[in-house]
Amino acid sequence: MFKSQGSFTNSMFGSYAYEKVIARNFNHLLVRLNNSIDLSFIEALVQDCYCHDNGRRAYHPVLMFKILFLQTLYNESDEKIIEAIDTNILFRYFIGLSLEDEIPDRTLLGKFKNRLGEDKFNQIFNRIVELAKENGLVDSRLRLIDCTAITANVDIYRCAKTKQAEHDQNYINHSTPDKEASTGHKTAHKKWYGYKSGIIIDAESEIVTAVETSTASIHDVEHLESLVEKDIVASGGAQRLCGDKGFVGKDTFLKDKNIINSIIRRNNMKQPRRLSYKLDKMVRPIIEHKFAEGKNLHGLGKARYWGRWKVHIQTLLIYLTMNLKKIVNFLIPIET
After folding, report:
1. Residue 195, phi then psi, degrees to nearest 5
2. Cα angle vertex 281, ends 263, 247, to 5°?
């Protein structure tokens, strides 16, 4: 099945060797995360992805997940994060490797993601949302919804060399190595090639409660139903939903779900007079902070891989990394 995590605590170079380093860095996010959040649920959740009675034993899934967390937290490549884990004492402590233990080969990160697949990463994400709710970070009052662009891992200029004629508008799709990416339009004159990430967040805590990844050409409003359904599964849903004008058009769906529709109306539409609509409209821009954090710190703006499901796993890791940071800072604030 998979290797035991016991070597860390049983080794003379295990926790004892890290004692003073950990003590000096008690405020470090990784130390506080290890002290406040139990990720062992991952083992039971992914057991059916492993063979129980033959083959070489794989690295423990919690260890592999923590490596992906570190990679996302510091926005590193597969090669760079494995190199960093080999030399960084706090990284070894965090994932549970003694100073004697060998580290996984970088190729195992991709194999681990393939082994678990999209569904298991969705389940891990949902469990972390549940942890946030259990600790009082998610309530049922207001959710915010929005989408952002993710640029495909494609050299557009190289694709342009295959353009057969001036009127050929699909030359990128003819020669792209990422066959699932497409062109999206931010405005009539501004576009991008790649994917679209849709999310729902809790307005108070900014915990991301639902994630949807599509090709760029899908309109924002088409994400709403799926995101709301995912939010209900992960967090129980909310009383009100607010988003920008791109999400107008799902009144009946929201009414059927008993969700008050605070989606911002277009100028030619009748404007709700209730106070909650005006207040929700004021806080809606909060969700932009989440996209900015993801793009500035964790690589949300650019796909690492080809294919929608791989990009979806990338976005799930980004949002659950931001969620874990929120939970840790809530449970164990930095001491001054």
Report:
1. -135, 175
2. 25
The residue ranking higher by pLDDT, 226 or 57, is 226
The pLDDT, as a whole number, for residue 159 is 67
Q: Decide: 227 and 219 in contact? Cβ < 8 Å.
A: no
Range of the domain at 146: 139-305
Q: Give pLDDT tens digits for 288-335.
A: 999 999 999 999 999 999 999 999 999 999 999 999 999 999 999 998
Is residue 327 one of the residues assigned to a domain? Answer: no
Q: Residue 196: exposed, middle, or buried by beta-carbon count in 10 A (0-12, 13-18, 19+)? A: buried
Q: What's the confidence (pLDDT) of residue 163? A: 61
Query: What's the CATH code of the domain at 281?
Result: 3.30.420.10
Q: Which residue has the tokens 């003590």?
A: 23
- Per-residue pLDDT tens for 196-210? 999 999 999 999 999
Arithmetic mean of pLDDT over the chain:
90
In a domain, 332, yes or no: no
Comparing CA positions, the residue from 218, 147, 139 lying closest to residue 181 is 218
Cβ proximity of 174 and 245 under 8 Å? no
Q: How many secondary structure helices (H) and strands (E) does the chain include? A: 15, 6
Q: How confident is the model at residue 175 (pLDDT cuts 50, 70, 90)?
A: low
Alpha-carbon distance values, 7 to 3, 21, 96, 237 (Å): 10, 19, 8, 42
Asked whether residue 335 is domain-assigned, the answer is no
Bridge-based pairing of strands 182-185 and 191-202 is antiparallel
How many domains in the chain? 2
- Which amino acid does the sequence have at 97? L
The answer for residues whose C-beta is within 8 angstroms of residue 69's C-beta and 6 or more apart is: 317, 321, 324
- Distance, in Å, from the CA atom of 183 to the CA atom of 192, rounded to the nearest integer, reads 6
> Do residues 237 and 257 lie in contact, with contact meaning Cβ atoms separated by under 8 Å?
yes
Do residues 259 and 240 touch, judged by C-beta distance below 8 A? yes
* pLDDT digit string, tens, across residues 19-53: 888 889 999 999 999 999 999 999 999 999 887 76
